[in-house]
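Holo prediction. Input below; ligand is beta-D-ribofuranose.
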Amino acid sequence: QIPLIIDTDPGIDDAVAIALAVFNPRFDVRLITTVAGNVSIEATTTNALKLMAYYGKDVPVARGAAEPLIRQLDDASDIHGKTGMEGFDFPEPKTELLLDKHAVEAMRDEIMASAEPVTVMPIGPLTNIALLLKTFPEVKSRIERIVLMGGSVTRGNKGVMAEFNIFVDPEAAKIVLTSGLDITMATLDAGLGTVIPPEKTAQLKDMGKVGLMAHDLFQRYRKRSFGTGLKMYDACAVACLLEPDLFDMTKAFVDVEIAGELTAGCTVVDLKGYLKREPNATVTTGVHADRFCDWFMDGIAHCA
Ligand code: BDR
Ligand code: CA
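Structure of the complex:
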């Protein structure tokens, strides 16, 4: 089993990625930490607790950063809806799972107490992870690796050049990427290839409670793509951990543009070694779409 901490801003695709992790026996999900991103920290935290209630799971949840390190939060409620998980009736949040400490402290405690090194899977802006590494640097030697959804090799989905999770908190992303830790980036480029076609999405509603939830949420999420094929961004991080062969990957030096007038939040992935820097990340450059789709559908079928 992979001891795992999920740092998340649920978020429709986050909800699905969390299901694929908590129902998979290959993971031991120890902690879920929330961050402001798709919607406010109040909403992402409530959503994480609602997901635990709906999934019937008891993973502790710790509330994290309410704002990016320096910038104002620019959320994605236009895509995920006002609550962040619009389109499905969830049960009341399981508030008893909410820890009485900040996400950064909860991560430190979990990582330092663990007998084995812990893997961290951030699928939202990297604010909490940057704060963790700066506040408690002793955790670095106890983190197995960071497998995150964020960044892009080519262009963006929020700014022209910036992927949403990095766009929201570029300074945090820079801290994480330059931390020296073993980092894998499930990028937008891979995510864009993970198209779940309409005939598969239609099947979801008869595939148990997670399938039904995913079906209903997806009708609301990126409405236009429900008919043309849905892209599973955050699930790519789960797939990178379990089935890395589904992706084309390369090691590269990656940094984050934090000063650019037009490009803030752009991940600069030096595929050709122009900057003469050692690689600091493994980057997905593409995905085997059909195989990903099979993996995804099979994963949802096993969420029970
Ligand atoms: C990322 O942005 C968010 O809206 C999604 O949840 C995902 O983490 C994709 O760019
Ligand atoms: Ca997310």
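The longest strand covers residues 247-256. That is the main takeaway for now.
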